[in-house]
């Protein structure tokens, strides 16, 4: 048989001596691990995310192909996606519209260098609610958010930005990039930016790719949580859902931009590295 199949006799003997019981036990352990991690990540991460999480959190190296095979055996499927978009733009040619300083340079060198923000809407039992979010481009961490059910005026984005500013206390020179929504050219909002010495940047009109990072976050939120709901939630429960998801996104969910490390942990590792550098320089 070995001669016909052109297989070495030693290879066949090695194969015949494999303990199938041990192999089955290892398979069960691997399946159990993938099931636990897939559930922990809210069924939102595919083979890339699972591979990164295994490497960073469990120090286990496993190929995407093997992970995909295990997921298929377990019947695990990543949540599906839907499209969404809603916005109220500033008047065409408004002199209050800021220039696009960011110019899609989404890779920044340090924390609190550039934040991006935007608004989206979510349907609840009480009707539409409006969610404003700000993200730090350095780690893709959500630094501030706010939700209102009655309107999407400038008070909403001001509240979210104030929470981010109180939480992070950024130095002067921070740039905040948004689209050309009417909320972002209001007098109160621009006054807030001036008070904190923040540079304002805006996407080109009708160009969502200029603010792709925040669009990606909204897509993840709705794909992984909102669109999975079978019935409409109340406003209060929706706020809890957003708060819980934001905590999961910042502290647990692996992010491809960070090498599949959660944003909060990515920042903590960066701060530890800087502290070590400062200590080494001080001892020289």
Could you please describe the fold and organization of this structure?
The protein is elongated. The model has no long low-confidence stretch (mean pLDDT 87). 45% of the residues lie in helices and 13% in strands. The protein folds into 2 domains: 2-74; 114-270, 2-Layer Sandwich (Nucleotidyltransferase, domain 5), CATH 3.30.420. The termini are far apart. It has a 5-stranded mixed sheet with strand order 3-2-1-4-5, sandwiched between helices. It contains 10 helices and 5 strands. The chain has helices spanning 2-5, 9-16, 20-40, 47-57, 64-74, 154-168, 187-195, 212-224, 235-251, 263-282, and strands spanning 114-124, 127-136, 141-148, 175-178, 199-202.
């Amino acid at each position: 048989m070995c001669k016909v199949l052109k297989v070495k006799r030693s290879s066949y003997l090695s194969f015949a001596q494999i303990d199938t019981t041990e192999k089955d036990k290892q398979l069960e352990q691997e399946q159990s691990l993938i099931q636990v991690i897939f559930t922990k990540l809210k069924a939102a991460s595919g083979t890339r995310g699972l591979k990164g999480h295994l490497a960073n959190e469990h120090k286990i190296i496993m190929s995407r192909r093997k992970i995909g095979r295990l997921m298929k055996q377990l019947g695990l499927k990543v949540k599906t996606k839907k499209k969404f978009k809603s916005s109220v733009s500033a008047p065409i040619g408004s002199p209050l519209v800021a220039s696009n300083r960011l110019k899609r340079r989404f890779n920044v060198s340090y924390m609190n260098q550039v934040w991006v923000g935007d608004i989206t809407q979510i349907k609840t039992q009480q009707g539409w609610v409006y969610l404003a979010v700000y993200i730090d481009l350095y780690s893709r961490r959500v630094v501030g958010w706010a939700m209102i059910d009655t309107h999407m005026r400038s008070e909403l984005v001001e509240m979210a930005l104030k929470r981010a500013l109180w939480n992070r206390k950024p130095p002067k020179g921070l740039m905040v990039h948004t689209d050309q929504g009417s909320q972002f050219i209001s007098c109160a909002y621009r006054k807030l930016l001036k008070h904190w010495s923040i540079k304002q940047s805006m996407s080109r009109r009708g160009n969502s790719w200029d603010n792709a990072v925040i669009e990606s976050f909204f897509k993840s939120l709705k794909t992984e949580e909102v669109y999975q709901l079978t019935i409409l939630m109340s406003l209060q429960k929706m706020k809890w859902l957003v708060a819980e998801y934001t905590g999961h996104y910042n502290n647990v969910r692996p992010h491809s931009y960070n090498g599949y490390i959660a944003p909060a942990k990515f920042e903590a590792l960066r701060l530890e590295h800087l502290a070590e550098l400062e200590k080494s320089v001080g001892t020289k």
